[in-house]
Amino acid sequence: MSGHVILLNGTSSSGKSSIAAELLDLLPGPYFSLPRDAVNSMRSRAQTPEFGTPEFDEVFERTVRGYHRMLAGLAAAGNGVIADHVLRPHWLADCLEVLQEQEVTFVGVHCPLPELQRREQVRGDRPAGLAERQYPIVHAHGDYDVECDTSVHSPRECARIIADFIATPNRSEAFRRLNSAKDLRPHQ
Ligand SMILES: Nc1ncnc2c1ncn2[C@@H]1O[C@H](COP(=O)(O)OP(=O)(O)OP(=O)(O)O)[C@@H](O)[C@H]1O
């Protein structure tokens, strides 16, 4: 298997990790599931600055940029990897740059806000209002290879949609389109 990144992007509670777990089962090769949160949880707690401070923001930015390079590193060695991310525009720009040499299937994981809020409340392990804050930003770039709505489909059904898309080679073009669009924009 040549290197491949499946980049799942959606708000908190949209269902990314549930889909990633199903994908591991459905995909033909031995993929890794590497969510952004896994990298966060590897960092020393005692030495991490307090959440909400500029010092924390700096550490978090380095963590996320490091995460993108971990994805690129795994794929560069020929591995398949499922990433689970809540993208902001500058993180998408960083992914477009560091994953340029890799095949990336960019997946939009959608869910209407009322359902996100319901899930957030039921889970009780995410700060209230997190999904609402992320909602207008996460899909702002507006281009994916494949999209699913987790209020309509189960995690297994979403994973099937994604696996079927991947089974046809050479269809993942969103990162190439987004990179071209970036090159066409005037430099500021
Ligand atoms: N397709 C679905 N239909 C119904 N409920 C779902 C679906 N996908 C996920 N859920 C439920 O929504 C909650 C959040 O799911 P999950 O942890 O997969 O989301 P996530 O996007 O990875 O969240 P986070 O980014 O906060 O870790 C869980 O309680 C899960 O059972």
TrEMBL record:
It comes from the Bacteria. Signal peptide: none annotated. ATP binds at residues 10-17. The active site is at 37. One of its GO terms (molecular function) is transferase activity. This is AAA family ATPase. It comes from Amycolatopsis dendrobii.
